[in-house]
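Table 4 source record.
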Amino acid sequence: MTPRARLFLCDRVSGVCTVQEHTRRVTLKAGTTVPVVLHLPAER
């Protein structure tokens, strides 16, 4: 499975927003929970 997320990231100081798309390949197994982690840029 490959989930896709469209994120709207806004910088409160400069007032500028950007859109980022992230995808992650995930291998699923019945009966288990799989966390999906996105590493985003640090807040300014």
